Amino acid sequence: MSLGTVAVIGGGIIGCLVARRIVHEHPASTVLLLDRDQVGCGASRRSAGLHFPRGTTERVRRMSEYSQEFYEKLRAERPAVPIHPVGMSLVSRADHDELERIYARPVRRDDAPAALDACGAEVRVPPSTSVWDVPGAQYADVQRLVQALVSELRPRVDVREGVRVTALEPDEGGVRLGLGTGERLAVDRVVLAPGPWLGEPAWAERVAPLGARVKRIVALHIEHPADEKDRAVVLHDEDAFLLPLAYRGHWLFSYTCQDWDVDPDRVGVGLAAHDVEQARACLGRYAPSLASRCTTGRVFCDAYSTSRQPLLRRLDPDGRVVFAGAANGSGYRLAPAIAAEAVQLIDQSVKGSLR
Prior knowledge:
The protein has 2 domains: about 5-45 and about 145-210 and about 310-355, FAD/NAD(P)-binding domain (3-Layer(bba) Sandwich); about 85-135 and about 215-305, D-Amino Acid Oxidase, subunit A, domain 2 (D-Amino Acid Oxidase, Chain A, domain 2, 2-Layer Sandwich). Strands 6-9-5-17-18-19-16-20 form an 8-stranded mixed beta sheet, with helices on one face. Strands 11-2-1-15-22-21 form a 6-stranded mixed beta sheet, covered by helices on one side. With about 350 residues, the chain is an alpha+beta fold. It has helices at about 15-25, 45, 60-75, 95-100, 140-155, 205, 275-285, 290, 330-355; strands at about 5-10, 30-35, 50, 85, 85-90, 105-110, 115-120, 120-125, 130-135, 140, 155-160, 165-170, 175-180, 185, 190, 215-220, 230-235, 240-245, 250-255, 295-305, 310-315, 320-325.
């Protein structure tokens, strides 16, 4: 069944996979993919791209497992995609029952190491803390992945890059879009996947009732060679991790920054002194020798929901505009499942209109 003409607003990993799913499941539909910049140049470009089966709620665990299967199938079909398996060790005071409610199949290490090797240094395992192996981890160059997937979609999708949406007006007959180029479009449905750009005038009023907020995300780079044999280390109790980015030749340390309500058009201007101080304080509890080497990195932001679960919502009474996002910093990890739910919402609204 055709969904008519669907405009997907936002060319990050979520929007890209929404467009891809529509093309695959509803090939008679006409699909537009619009982005204010080049595809993959927002949160996707700054993403650490770490994926592993994890979720603090049953729904997010289910979504994570779905995405795991999607990426495994994608790698099998297209071995050249920039997705890289990585071993993962997890450090936590939590017991098996607690961790099993969050991670898929954690296995406690019997040798009880006092330290782990990462980035050419020791990462201490504090007293009363255990080390667990977590299977199924991988990381991606998310920007390159988006670009590769969109290049395949171009023969079947009208990709509009560098085109800002300035108006979004649903009515009983469809949705009217105004573009920064001065063009006006009439489409049947819209999937809004704006990443952290929740406050764009075209949709800010419709998105505001969702209660999503934008939080700053910071990761520090450690200039030490990384290769495919290195393992990621998750500091579960800190909500932080060390990741060997072999394709870039260095390590990344991600910690939880608590700067809220930031502007995505202003936040990505570089590290601030307090970013480095917070990262070093966190990492220094486990690996003091690495903390002092955190001097460079990346800064951006993402949209977070109040429930800490991705938001899939209809934004108008007829269900012609669907919001897909607020993935809480897990856009890459959950994008396949978010895309599947978004297309299902559109499909349901189409079927409802035919009754």
